[in-house]
Specification:
Two copies of one chain form a homodimer. The first copy, chain A, is an alpha/beta fold. Helices cover 41% and strands 17% of the residues of chain A. Chain A has helices at residues 6-25, 39-52, 83-95, 108-112, 116-120, 123-135, 140-153, 169-180, 193-204, 243-251, 267-274, 307-315, 322-325, and strands spanning 66-69, 155-156, 161-162, 184-192, 211-223, 226-237, 258-261, 281-286, 318-321. Chain A has a seven-stranded mixed β-sheet with strand order 6-5-4-1-7-8-9, with helices on both faces. In chain A, strands 2-3 form a two-stranded antiparallel sheet. In chain A, α11 links the parallel β7 (258-261) and β8 (281-286). In chain A, α7 packs across α9 (193-204). Chain A starts with 5 loop residues before the first helix and ends in a 10-residue tail after the last helix. The A-B interface holds A 1-3, 63, 66, 140, 184, 193-194, 197, 201, 207-211, 215, 218-220, 222, 226-227, 229, 242-246, 249-254, 268, 271-272, 275 and B 1-3, 63, 66, 140, 184, 193-194, 197, 201, 207-211, 215, 218-220, 222, 226-227, 229, 242-246, 249-254, 268, 271-272, 275.
Amino acid sequence: MRAVPRSVRRAASPLLGALALAACTAPPADPLPAWDDGPAKQAIVAFVETVTRPGSGGFVPPAERIAVFDNDGTLWAEQPIYFQAVFAFDRVRAMAPDHPEWKRTQPFKAILEGDLEAALAGGEQALLEIVMATHAGMATDAFEGLVADWIATARHPRFDRPYRECVYQPMLELLGYLRANGFQTWIVSGGGIEFMRPWVEEVYGIPPQQVVGSSIRTRFELRDGEPVLVRLPEIDFIDDKEGKPVGIQRHIGRRPIAAFGNSDGDLAMLQWTAAGPGLSLAVYVHHTDAEREWAYDRASHVGRLAKGLDEAAARGWTVVDMTRDWKRVFPFDPR
Amino acid sequence: MRAVPRSVRRAASPLLGALALAACTAPPADPLPAWDDGPAKQAIVAFVETVTRPGSGGFVPPAERIAVFDNDGTLWAEQPIYFQAVFAFDRVRAMAPDHPEWKRTQPFKAILEGDLEAALAGGEQALLEIVMATHAGMATDAFEGLVADWIATARHPRFDRPYRECVYQPMLELLGYLRANGFQTWIVSGGGIEFMRPWVEEVYGIPPQQVVGSSIRTRFELRDGEPVLVRLPEIDFIDDKEGKPVGIQRHIGRRPIAAFGNSDGDLAMLQWTAAGPGLSLAVYVHHTDAEREWAYDRASHVGRLAKGLDEAAARGWTVVDMTRDWKRVFPFDPR
């Protein structure tokens, strides 16, 4: 700091004194303003303060501060259907002119006729066919471009907002709060790894190398001497349920100390995190707010949360009640 | 800077002037002292200075400064056999009391009799059997402990030093130089990912989540309510040759701008890196120094470098001549 010349210092002292007083007494800005000051926020803050305080007993060195987040239903919404399914359906419509046979073949016929219920009636097999038809057969760079174009333009029907804005304001704050406290934040999602990577850095501040997700196989080829990675119509890895700890080990190689999910698909990830040797934080987001978002849990087809609620109660995990704990849900909600 | 009081400033001015002059004229400390000031070092430094200089035309934002390194033969030695093979053989000897049948079954019989040539005569199939017998069947945590114990104690027969000291001093300097310039440094090795993770952070400053390698499958299980990841005797991924760009995309999701290898197993990784849209650096380490290390390339069984040498010449990639370009090879070499 540059020393203040004596004359100026003397003249300005009442002002400087007032400023110094304000700096000492004003509470630090709340890093989690969209969170109600209830038990969920208190549990999160207490955990972060303990693991970051040297000599606290629960101190964790920065390199081991790994926090993992499910994406669908935890960082952004997942109703009325997974947003990646909307992307796939939009791709089917865009590709239809080159596939006249789809007018007669399910599940494509149903998608083209706008009957999504019929399209999904074929269950996992139908979904797999849709994914392979729309997510494979091109170079990785080309697929990245398709996702980037879609995320820039497609809009959610209920909110009439881009899907990328249908993210949870409290979770954006939480990601920033954890990073400000030396955590590395990771996505561990059942969604496609390459469907997330093109936009999560801008939206969540999470770089592509910190994304774990489901994947199809790729193959390295030289095409006219030019190297390409071609996306193949074969499942490589399903990053859901018991696959989540496997994906965490594969990509991170270190057990997280904090995990955030919203469905039974996240249960194994929360169990794996909570069973670590030191202090840990396992959090479920519970969708209880039909007014501002959606209310669903045990009976839902998308994001079912049943076993997870029972285990959270039995083990004393933190359950975020969206209605009670979140003052705002989306960034576009009024303050 | 704190302003120097006028009286002091005047009194001290000759001394301060001399110090200021020294600060302006002394060259900055060389970050790569084990490198000879030849064309290889010059190419590396010129690349780093260009991609880090805003407005240079070749500027690359820090988030995209990804550098990938092969491990065996690039960061540490790989002769007379891959160090991970020594670990596997040591495991066979340690496990032998529980496997009396190994006294009669190849390739285990040959290992127990100390005849490594015979042990490796069975080729890939024999190696696979050795890896599955020694690397699978336990929890991930237990395997990590076995590797940590081995790396702390096992010694290289030629140098009578721990294997973890048989790393290349110039490459350690290069890793630090790149990180000081905002690069993220990654290992992309044909070796086992979980064989590297327990020690690479301490030895190379590379955290476990920045390691890409070959892997076997794991399965999440609850054993008496306790979650474990069990290592299964099934290949998951071979991170070699055309697998290296696939592994890079899987783990990083972004094309590197710098790649370092030493064998034909690294060729696809260098091609993928060099074919990126901007400036890139592709470097081969050429083992030419039989005196301080080993001399081998086109005819070697370990770390064969033939196609790669031809392609490096054709494309003008940087080839490090160990004899000429490295003033020291190992940290334990005299300065």
